Amino acid sequence: MEILIIIVISYLMGSIPFGFILTKVFLKKNIREIGSGNIGATNVLRTGNKIIGYATLTLDILKAITPVIYIKFNFPDFLYIASLCTFLGHVFPIWLKFKGGKGVATYLGILCSINIYFGLIFITSWLIIFAISRFSSLSSLVASASIPVYLLILTDFNQVFFFTTMFILIFFTHRENIKRLKNKEETKTKIY
After folding, report:
1. What angle do CA 76, 90, 10 make, to 5 degrees?
2. How far is CA 155 from CA 142, 151, 172, 178, in A?
3. Are 87 and 14 in contact (CB under 8 A)?
4. CA-based torsion, 130, 191, 123, 171: positive or negative
5. Tell me: the pLDDT tens digits for 116-159?
6. Where do the structural domains in the chain lie, given as residue ranges?
7. The pTM is what?
8. Cβ contact 131:108 at 8 Å
9. To 5 degrees, how large is the angle CA 21–CA 8–CA 103?
10. CA 24 to chain centre
11. Angle of the 175-182 helix axis to the 160-173 helix axis, nearest 10
């Protein structure tokens, strides 16, 4: 029963579609009809409102930190299950017919909650690749891959499976971006 409650609460926390809510309330727009149609922070930035874009980013990170930190200190055996369910809630929210975001900000919240150094490695990798390419999608893919690679270098194999699984999921959510990157059709992102 305990694990079922953790799964449901983690999923529901992750499934709060902040990008959709904020653009609807403050901009009177449907984010699903703007840019890529994605509810994540990168697409919210395409509305031209940076405050709403960064608010979405912050809230998508926090909605992962809240349940994962709680589970980490109270039910540590279920940490990875809670993390995965929070991520899946964002990507497949019940409120939007299971069509959500790509999970990058939520994943960053999970990383920071599990180990702050993982979060710092992710952010550093993301910023380096973004400074070179200006592609948010490429930056997210490389940053997501950096965590299992880092763990392999440290020979910390206990966590490699989980973080490799997370990378595969992020790879899956970015499949259209990968096609556009290959075809040189991906749009560069303005973050300021």
Report:
1. 30
2. 20, 6, 26, 29
3. yes
4. negative
5. 999 999 999 999 999 999 999 999 999 999 999 999 998 778 89
6. 2-182
7. 0.95
8. no
9. 50
10. 21
11. 70
**How many whole angstroms separate alpha carbon 86 and alpha carbon 25?**
24
For residues 111 and 170, give the distance between their C-alpha atoms in angstroms, rounded to a whole number.
Answer: 14
Overall residue count recorded for the chain in this entry: 192
Tokens representing residue 124 in the block: 């550093």
C-alpha 44/C-alpha 133 separation (Å) is 20
- Report how far apart the first and last C-alpha atoms of the chain are (Å, whole number): 46
- Residue 40 has phi, psi (to 5 degrees) of -80, 170
What CA–CA distance (Å, rounded) separates 173 from 99?
11
The two three-digit tokens of residue 70, written as one number: 């709680």
Give residue 100's Cα distance to chain centre.
11
**Alpha carbon distances (Å) from 24 to 28, 49, 91, 109, 110:** 5, 13, 19, 24, 26
The answer to whether the CB of 52 falls within 8 A of the CB of 22 is yes
